[in-house]
């Protein structure tokens, strides 16, 4: 089992596998690894999967529970006009850039049911650091910016969403919707570079002498 499949099997599917008549919106298909798993869940739970990709991925499956939309993931009016009903799961695995992920979250949030989930793949920069096997500048920077953006959203919405992270493979953010409100993100300002913390670090060094 690949790291991606293991992540889905252990961190994602157990959270949604008991939702009957489940409605899933998947953004990003490629080879259909997540698509096939979602379709199996839909078959078991009398559900429906809508998948969106800019490339033609229509050959991934002929399952009657599947509707494939060849489109940009931010073609919101078109996609919502096809789905029509509310969804239980939004899976984001397309363009992993912070501003784009933010746009997707805020535009699809209104059509997600209360207690529904948003899963965002590729939020960990750790596998892509310069000294790691997957060494990749683009993925390192964008994943870290996406991770921080999700925290910025959460810090101003602790009453509206629950948030958890998995760091298996390239990581997964797990947001659970608690209300229909979603406030704008707020940049988190820490005291890491405060004068107080600088003195704290100096004092710790002096104590070691």
Properties at a glance:
6 helices; Rossmann fold; seven-stranded mixed sheet; 209 residues
Q: Care to describe what's here?
A:
The chain is α/β, with parallel strands linked by helices and 209 residues long. It has one domain (3-208): 3-Layer(aba) Sandwich (Rossmann fold). 38% of the residues lie in helices and 21% in strands. The chain has 6 helices and 7 strands; from the N terminus they run H-E-H-E-E-H-E-H-E-H-E-E-H. It has a 7-stranded mixed β-sheet with strand order 3-2-1-4-5-7-6, with helices on both faces. Helix 4 links the parallel strand 4 and strand 5. Helix 4 crosses helix 5 (137-155). The mean pLDDT is 95.
Q: Which shape, going by the Cα principal axes?
A: globular
| Percent strand | 15-25%
Distance between the ends: 51 Å
Count all strands and give the number: 7
Structural class: alpha/beta
Mean pLDDT: 95
Q: Order of strands side by side in the largest beta sheet?
A: 3-2-1-4-5-7-6
User: Class, according to the CATH hierarchy?
Assistant: Alpha Beta
Largest sheet, described in full?
A: 7 strands, mixed
Q: Which radius of gyration do the C-alpha atoms yield?
A: 19 Å
Order of helices and strands: HEHEEHEHEHEEH
- Helix count, DSSP H or I runs of 4 or more residues: 6
CATH architecture: 3-Layer(aba) Sandwich
């Amino acid at each position: 089992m690949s790291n991606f499949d293991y992540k889905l099997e252990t961190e994602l599917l157990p959270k949604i596998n008991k939702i009957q008549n489940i409605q899933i919106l998947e953004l990003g298909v490629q080879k259909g690894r997540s698509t096939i798993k979602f379709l199996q869940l839909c078959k078991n739970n009398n559900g429906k999967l809508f998948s969106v990709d800019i490339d033609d991925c229509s050959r991934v499956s002929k399952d009657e529970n599947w509707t494939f939309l060849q489109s940009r993931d931010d073609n919101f009016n078109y996609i919502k006009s096809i789905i029509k009903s509310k969804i239980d799961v939004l899976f984001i695995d397309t363009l992993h850039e912070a501003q784009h992920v933010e746009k997707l979250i805020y535009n699809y949030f209104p059509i997600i049911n209360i207690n529904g989930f948003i899963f965002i793949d590729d939020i960990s920069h750790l596998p892509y650091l310069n000294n790691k096997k997957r060494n990749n500048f683009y993925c390192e920077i964008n994943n870290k910016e996406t991770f921080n953006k999700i925290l910025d959203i959460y810090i101003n919405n602790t009453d509206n969403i629950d948030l958890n992270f998995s760091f298996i493979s390239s990581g997964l953010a797990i947001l659970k919707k608690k209300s229909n409100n979603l406030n704008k993100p707020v940049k988190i300002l820490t005291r890491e570079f405060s004068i107080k913390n600088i003195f704290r670090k100096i004092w710790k060094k002096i104590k070691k002498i």
